[in-house]
Automatic annotation (TrEMBL):
<dbReference type="InterPro" id="IPR004360">
    <property type="entry name" value="Glyas_Fos-R_dOase_dom"/>
</dbReference>
<dbReference type="InterPro" id="IPR028973">
    <property type="entry name" value="PhnB-like"/>
</dbReference>
<dbReference type="Pfam" id="PF00903">
    <property type="entry name" value="Glyoxalase"/>
</dbReference>
<feature type="domain" description="Glyoxalase/fosfomycin resistance/dioxygenase">
    <location>
        <begin position="4"/>
        <end position="131"/>
    </location>
</feature>
<protein>
    <submittedName>
        <fullName>VOC family protein</fullName>
    </submittedName>
</protein>
<dbReference type="InterPro" id="IPR029068">
    <property type="entry name" value="Glyas_Bleomycin-R_OHBP_Dase"/>
</dbReference>
Amino acid sequence: MASRLNPYLVFEGDARQALEFYQEVFGGTLSLGTYGEIGGRPGTPDADKIMHGMLETPSGFTLMGADTPPGEDFQRGNAFSISLSGDDASELRGYWERLTAGGSVSVPLEKQMWGDVFGMCADRFGVAWMVNITERQG
């Protein structure tokens, strides 16, 4: 899989509704995972909120989104991140190193509970980035 760049939107509790709407608009396959299912927070008030959603359309668009993480305040002007994902670990780690130079890291680039290597940072201009490295298939 080649690396790809796509928008990652953050919502104030209505990510499911928004992503389902975008599926109606663009078509495609929508996958949703909640904080209860993949975030290790079953039985909590935020268990049904979306931790990660991804819409892949027949036109080749990919749109990702999630609800504001528990314990963080939603800020309209900061309601997006740019997501880099793929299975070329060397390429993606190189991007990570360059993006974090002079920036800040909010989630270190390391193995996560869902099995991928993932990190979040803001570059020196304050732009939010997420990097997700999956294992190569076959």
